[in-house]
Amino acid sequence: RMKGLQQAQRGMKNFLKSLKMIQTKIAKMEKKGVTVPADLKGKVDEAVAALEAIINAKEWSEEIEEKMMSMQEMGDAMQEIMPRLEMMSRLPQMVKKAQSEIKRLETAYNRAVKKASRAKVDVSSLLEKWQAAIAELKANLAAASSGQLGESDDPMQAIGEGVFENLESAWRFDQIVMMVLDVKRNLRNVVA
Length: 192
Known about the structure:
The chain is mainly alpha-helical. The protein is built from 6 helices and no strands. It has helices at about 1-30, 40-55, 60-90, 90-120, 125-145, 155-190. The chain starts with a helix and ends with a helix. The model has no long low-confidence stretch (mean pLDDT about 85).
């Protein structure tokens, strides 16, 4: 039995190393502001504790045997966790990209406000709708970034649906306002 325990302990050391790497990755993600669900962290911590108990065991016991039996289940759980963690690790880049796109939209909005003012064209109802669209994009991004995901438990999907899919419709306001200003300018040229 002791020899079997020693073999199992050797086999578990690599699994423990990979779990420690996952714990480090989770810590780095949290440092970057990514909210890692407690259930994911809990499963990893639980697996690490079980592996350490097996590796540090001096003799075979029922407790060690139970922990050994749970290893397959823990391995399956880790295979589920890894893709989710990988996606979540890309979340800061996606948030940055979404913020950048919203910033570009705000810049275009501010430029349109100035152009409309200079051209003395009343497009205030369009500008209000455009501003509301920008506010909604910001709210969707903030909700997804903070973990308030609604129907989806995937922040990447929430940002995709809440921000990127709605960007195109928000940019339409820019096109419409610019068309109105062009028409007004062309009418002035015809009249002049």
